[in-house]
Write a structure and sequence with these properties.
Belongs to the sigma-70 factor family. ECF subfamily. InterPro entries: RNA_pol_sigma-70-like (IPR039425), RNA_pol_sigma-70_dom (IPR014284), RNA_pol_sigma70_r2 (IPR007627), RNA_pol_sigma70_r4_t2 (IPR013249), RNA_pol_sigma_r2 (IPR013325), RNA_pol_sigma_r3/r4-like (IPR013324), WH-like_DNA-bd_sf (IPR036388). GO terms for molecular function: DNA binding; sigma factor activity. This protein is mainly α. The chain is about 80% helix and about 0% strand. The protein has two domains: about 1-115, Rna Polymerase Sigma Factor, Chain: A, CATH 1.10.1740.10; about 115-179, Arc Repressor Mutant, subunit A, CATH 1.10.10.10. It is built from nine helices and no strands.
């Protein structure tokens, strides 16, 4: 019989390394998938997943069991991804105008991004809130009610966000056809 997440969390909070290891092993793929859907780049998703796992032991102290462990974990990953996206934006603004080196670096990044799947690129154009919604609804196969509970928003807001995602992707596809 498989031990529940809640039991593993309680044991890990009590300092049992084996329980913590089992918890990380059980949920690493989920952490990585959500990281990838939020960031759109494999290397960054791997880095973020490793960062989340590295800080998970200390973060478990804040888990009070008021929600499912996976709900709490999703929120942890989404917040970490949003922080990384903010840092990425701040870094990009700070490095603008650094001459030929910066121009070449941006060109290399653009070439690498062109090789990614169309959807991953398209999702990069969405706000972090829309990406988080898409990651849960499509990536984690949640219904709108479940995603709303995970994100702490109304089911109607999830439906609106998904509608906005469809509109944005349709517009992008039409613009690409014209080009």
């Amino acid at each position: 019989m498989e031990v529940s997440d809640e039991t593993l969390v309680a044991d890990a909070q009590a300092g049992q390394a084996r329980a913590f290891g089992t918890l990380v092993s059980r949920h690493y793929d989920r952490i990585y998938r959500l990281s990838y859907r939020m960031l759109g780049q494999r290397a960054e998703a791997e880095d973020l997943a490793q960062d989340v796992c590295a800080t998970l032991a200390s973060r478990l102290r804040s888990f009070r069991g008021e929600a499912k462990f996976t709900t709490w974990l999703h929120r942890l990953v989404i917040n970490a991804a949003k922080d990384r996206l903010r840092r990425r934006t701040t870094y990009a603004r700070a490095t603008e105008g650094w001459g030929d080196w910066e121009v070449n670096r941006k060109a290399e990044i653009a070439e690498a991004q062109e090789e990614q799947r169309w959807l991953a690129e398209a999702l990069q154009g969405l706000s972090p809130d829309l990406r988080a919604t898409v990651a849960l609804v499509l990536g984690e196969d949640m219904n709108h009610r479940e995603a709303a509970a995970e994100l702490g928003i109304s089911e109607g807001t999830v439906s609106w966000r998904m509608s906005e995602v469809r509109r944005a992707l349709t517009t992008l596809r039409e613009e690409e056809k014209r080009a």
